[in-house]
Amino acid sequence: MLAMQHSNSSGITASSPPSNHTIMVQVPEVEAVANNTTLSNPTAAGLTMTLGILFNVVALFILAKAYNRFRRRSKATFLLFASSLVATDLAGHVINGALVLRRYSTPDTASGSKSGYADPDSSCLFLGSCMVFFGLCPLFLGCAMAAERCLGVTKPLLHARLVTTARTKVALTLVWLLALFVALLPFFGLGAYTSQYPWTWCFIRVIGDVKGIDLAFMIMFSGLALSSLALAFVCNTISGITLLKARLKKRTYSHRCSARSHDTEMVVQLVGIMVTSCICWSPLLVFGLMSAIQSYSGSLGSDQDTYRGLMVTAVRMATCNQILDPWVYILLRRAILRRIYHITKRQASFNGSRFHTIRWEVSSFQNSEKHSVNKI
């Protein structure tokens, strides 16, 4: 996914080739620009990979420490899901980053053709399947976490009876297997992976010679991902409304307040995960689907370079998801949220006291004026 750093800094020059001869002239020019700009400077990709690994390791350490502290509480299930999500992000960052850096070092790795239409090599197929697998896994896990918290907030007794550590591990295994099943479908004839501009990353064939089976695979990928985001939104909304109603009822039992505090922390983190995933993944899902539909219908035409540029921008944003996810757990912890709350409250109190002081001074001045006029 580190392909987000591999884009041609000068952009892609859109052109409308009138003939096959023009195509033969234009494509090598684009390829030459891409090769000169993307293969000569892998520093940005390496730096992004290093930062992503560092952030994920820090978040994983924080979650592991919290899991040991809350192992016998309801929060343990959430922490197990969260740890699995961060571990998956870390693995995706390392594996995809290593494959992309390898394609940096071997310019001719895309089967001798940088146009993306030739049959990809084994490394491109593996990178494409990793892109799909490590793309779906965080979205599926975020959806599963939102559903688990929704059940825990709305039906705590049912949650305590149904949700156990063993069942959570089974659910995690099923999530990974489902994502792996989807990623391996092109190896059984459903869809295909190809090299993508600027030929340093591989993904589902959405531009070029798109067949009906490619379009079906892209629809499946986008449909599963967008459905996960939608379901997570519904579950988080229900959880947030339930917690808000409980807050308004002002329950005073200390143990209940402590439980609600933990629930609020987890829901806030889930909302952060959902918002991050929506912002980072929606462009790739939408632009990829649009590109596949336009290519299959034959109406892409001269907009091919534009859609290539959109895909590069979209994969950049998708890569940011693996870097931003750890910060959700680092920054949206209860201790950090409580500190922010106290600082905000203190600032509001300070502003309020200043407002009351100004009002007192004005009223005192008005009273002194009235007293002076009466004396006169």
Structural commentary:
There is one protein chain. With 376 residues, the chain is an all-alpha fold. Helix content is 77%, strand content 2%. It has a two-stranded antiparallel ribbon. A hairpin with a 4-residue loop joins strand 1 (193-196) and strand 2. The longest helix is centred in the C-terminal third of the chain and has 44 residues, at 254-297. 38% of the residues are buried. Mean pLDDT is 76; it is low at 3-40, 109-117 and 252-256.
* CATH architectural arrangement: Up-down Bundle
What is the CA–CA distance across the termini?
83 Å
Counted by DSSP, the helix tally is 10
SSE string? HHHHHHEEHHHH
Number of domains: 1
Secondary-structure blueprint:
Elements: H1 20-38, H2 43-69, H3 75-105, H4 122-154, H5 156-162, H6 165-184, E1 193-196, E2 201-204, H7 212-248, H8 254-297, H9 304-331, H10 334-375
Antiparallel strand pairs: 1-2
Helix pairs in contact: 2-3, 2-9, 3-4, 3-6, 3-9, 4-5, 4-6, 4-7, 4-8, 7-8, 8-9
Question: Outline of this structure?
Answer:
With 376 residues, the protein is an all-alpha fold.
Keywords:
Rhopdopsin 7-helix transmembrane proteins; two-stranded antiparallel ribbon; 10 helices; disordered N terminus; mainly alpha; 2 strands; globular; 376 residues
